[in-house]
Amino acid sequence: xxxxxxxxxxxxxxxxxxxxxxxxxxxxxxxxxxxxxxxxxxxxxxxxxxxxxxxxxxxxxxxxxxxxxxxxxxxxxxxxxxxxxxxxxxxxxxxxxxxxxxxxxxxxxxxxxxxxxxxxxxxxxxxxxxxxxxxxxxxxxxxxxxxxxxxxxxxxxxxxxxxxxxxxxxxxxxxxxxxxxxxxxxxxxxxxxxxxxxxxxxxxxxxxxxxxxxxxxxxxxxxxxxxxxxxxxxxxxxxxxxxxxxxxxxxxxxxxxxxxxxxxxxxxxxxxxxxxxxxxxxxxxxxx
Length: 288
Ligand SMILES: NC(=O)c1ccc[n+]([C@@H]2O[C@H](COP(=O)([O-])OP(=O)(O)OC[C@H]3O[C@@H](n4cnc5c(N)ncnc54)[C@H](OP(=O)(O)O)[C@@H]3O)[C@@H](O)[C@H]2O)c1
Hints:
- Strands 5-4-6-7-10 form a 5-stranded parallel beta sheet, with helices on both faces.
- The chain has 2 domains: about 25-110, Leucine Dehydrogenase, chain A, domain 1 (Rossmann fold); about 135-270, Rossmann fold.
- It is α/β, with parallel strands linked by helices.
- It contains 10 helices and 10 strands.
- The radius of gyration is 19 Å and the shape is globular.
- NADP nicotinamide-adenine-dinucleotide phosphate (NAP) binds near residues 190, 195, 209 and 231.
């Protein structure tokens, strides 16, 4: 097995398949991104997604709203998108202004257009192993495990982080009775006692904490496979800033069996999973 589990060959394949399917069928899947305010990182991500999507044959539009938009106005806008048959996927870009109730907004998105996979109906389907939209980052982790033929059956997987968008759905996916499931899963969080004790026992460690290089090499066993979900901006003396993961990369790379890099790992596959979900939403729409 290659030691650095890079996303490039995997996303190349995913994007080629998406582009081919769309052009062969002359389809026009349409994603609408809801962007509220001018957060620079969010804007950068959205512009990038727009470019990437359009190159593969997707229509990607952005609905930009003033940060002062009220809950009611936003819910009305979502209802318009829900009923527009030319819109197949709706993505809510974060962060949201503090006065908005995120959970009510997520609930308002038509579950058949919920390409983030955060609607409770899709989350419920995920837990019950039924068809639905799987959140993009947990799905990206599964795709990496599958692509690099990392066996999960009977393995002890320790996830650090229990968020609704990463840790919780991922734990459920790894419990599924399928090729990327059948694992014994431990979910750790900020109240876990003696975290290194758990990580040292893990065959696979998945870090989704949001703290730069929090997981040190001495917390991992030599045969471990490490999937780093974290994306943290830190100062860089030359470039001003750079992105690092939740795992101390250099020392861990020397020690463990395989590890995903940041950038160039889970994050890149996450974008590909979002566009896959948009195509799935499109197919759902045309078949109904
Ligand atoms: N690559 C991608 O596509 C992608 C997508 C989404 C997120 N991310 C990145 O993934 C990371 C996690 O994101 P998130 O949204 O899941 O974050 P989050 O909602 O802030 O959750 C962080 C989790 O880490 C746990 N945690 C915090 N400090 C800890 C500690 N000292 N020991 C053990 N656990 C600790 C928290 O525990 P408590 O629950 O007890 O507070 C929480 O469950 C971030 O770096 C984010 O940028 C990447």
